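ok so for the tutorial part 2 we go from a plain amino acid sequence to predicted structure tokens. step 1 is just haveing the sequence, like this:
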Amino acid sequence: MKDHGEGEMHPKTVDVIIVGAGLAGLSCARRLRTQGVDYLLIEASDRVGGRVKTDVVKGFILNHGFQVLQTAYPEAQRFLDYAALDLKAFAPGAVFRISGRFHTVADPLRAPRYVIQTLAAPIGTWGDRLRMARLNRRITRVGPEEILRGPDSPTPDFLRGEGFSELMIERFFMPFFSGVCLDPQIKVSSRVFQYIFRMFAMGDVSIPAGGMEEIPKQIAGAIEPDRLRTGVRVRAVKQGTVTLESGEELYCRKAVLAVEAPEVERLLGFTARTASRGEHCLYFSAEEPPLREPLLVVNAEGRGPINNLCVPSLVASTYAPAGRSLISVTVIGEHLVSKSNLEEAVRDQLSEWYGKAANRWELLRVYSIRHALPDQPAPAPDPTVAVGELRPGIFVCGEYGSLPSIQWALMSGRLAAEAVLAAAARRANS
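step 2 — the prediction. this is what the tokens look like for a chain of 430 residues:
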């Protein structure tokens, strides 16, 4: 197969082909569109969104895995119309399961009604509480660039360096943040941890009333139908040519890969090196919810398959039909190995937590996501800087060379588009 580079163009050549219509690809397409660039966005699945997808099952709104939007994300504020998404927020806290009991822990400034429960929760020492306030004050006062370009280490080492006790690390930080990064030991970059901590402190954790897929659908609303092809899987990408599994060849001046990191490696023939973090998400229907407030329930007991549980229909009533509740259960880590007894193991722990009523919950669907996130060890890349060209004429955005999250997907797509525009300008001026 002959490559079609900058110097030799096929009659049907477009300026840019974007491979992948997840948030990064959509962000890239939108930026190119505003600059009048001739682009084509292609997607392997039947709809836009990448991993940010939603199904409706028996009247319940089911997101693909436990997904939320941090309203403090700067790039989300730039791209999204929050009012149109009709965002509904979780309460700013969580319920921790410790030694057979539930304990509520919340931000005392944003949720003062929980202050007594928070002070009584056996998650750490009084010194830990003072250190938490100090950490919160410091992280919210510095800019994100300072965090993302500062010293980096595994998060447990960072927390010990901040003076937190092992009790606080094991009963609060590990169980809570493991559900965010899908790493039970939270050995993620301390830069990543601090940025996430900052977002929790500065905004709401929310979900759109119509499901998380409303986010990519909103961005895609500006894309002309003839600029988007779905159900199209790519076999390979070379300079000037995108080859589909069907054998069809598409020609372009530039290509942008906006796909998961393992898919970037496959398309370019790189040696696979990206470690994946997966999850199972089980959705149940119940007559009555197991809790009364829109809080996340976190397993801090160090045993059993459940990492966290929530009731999305308490956050947004649209997530369940009238008279029913929707319950989401997330499983990570070693419990991902076998699916054969997954439901049984989860139900055993649910009945331990909530009694016989949990046995009557109806399982609606299980989402098993092998690559929900890439691993995020230290040192983390700086996601505010574009990766640029991996190969001549081939750019990348998304988690490859950056970080995963709605924030960084949107930013990396915009930065990739700007890198493409800059490369075209340099060529025009040369």
